[in-house]
Amino acid sequence: MANNLSNLSVTSSDNSLTIPTAKRVPNELTMAIFVVFFTLIVCSNIWVMIAVVRQSKLRKSSTCMFIISLSISDLMMAFFYIPMQVAYVGFGLAGMSSVVLCKGTAWLQWVAQCATIFSLIGIGIDRYRAIVQPLHPKLTRTDAAVCIAVIWICAGTYSSHRMYVLDIVTFTHPVGFNVTVSTSVCAVPSDKYYLLSYLEVSDFLVMYLVPLIILCVMYAIMVSSLWFSSAPNDESKQKKRKAVKMLILVVVLFCISWFPWRFFSLYFQMTDITTIPVNIYIWSDVIAATCITLYLSNSWVNPFLYAYFNQSFRDEFYRLFSWILKRKSKVTPSTGQTLTITTNSVNNTLT
Asked: What are the residue boundaries of the G-protein coupled receptors family 1 profile domain, all occurrences included (predicted)?
């Protein structure tokens, strides 16, 4: 976003040019965040996939198949977005000459974003049928697999517009008298600028607003059915309530983490650059870094929610990391002998 504001200047009445100094996020801080987030995203989502494979209860659940789809899209954000940013921020590798790399990485990044929100819709539909329409047949693993295939096909199809608008663009910069330097970057050619406003509105609707409206309506109906119906308050209903709480929190966090990026992307694209307030120009780099940090955090926070709310995920977490959770404590009897007792915090922690 900061690049969109680089041409903004302020001219006073005496024709002197005053350009305020933009606030920058230190490269060291940006690199540290990317490295930490990459580690969190990869480790947490691989753990989710291992947990589903190892736990028979999770493996048989159609909801967990959608959760696997969500984890795959999060992993794609880690592998196809963060390395590009690390190369740019950490090593100054802004140039690009490969059309395949330019179009391919952009397409994969958009596929990951689309698959995330579409997978959330799939989870919502699965829970809606189980809670609001209990007499209807539940989604089987085959049904879930077909839905997931449709999700990824739709995500790939919609994201293809990134391959159309992006290309290798060469910029020439003067560096001295009759001396110029050419730099090739992955960008939108000038003859396609007119498409950007339409695409930004489309992304906001397809990848954010419309899916969230659908999810809000479905979960509102589920909450009404679970909390305000006259049905008996049995153990099954309590479990469904807990599952819905977890999934609502997943949707809320998605909404919060992606809203700043969607809002400011739309704002900068739809606003005349000369009318953007100077303060926003000054802080544009910080705004962009904050937005990126927020939406990347959404790719690693979900596994922690699963571990907190879901007993099966929590059991598998303790099983996988039992070597860390095990501790030894020494008890010294009155006889002076030393007795070593090994305790496993797994048994004490599980509820």
From this structure: 44-306
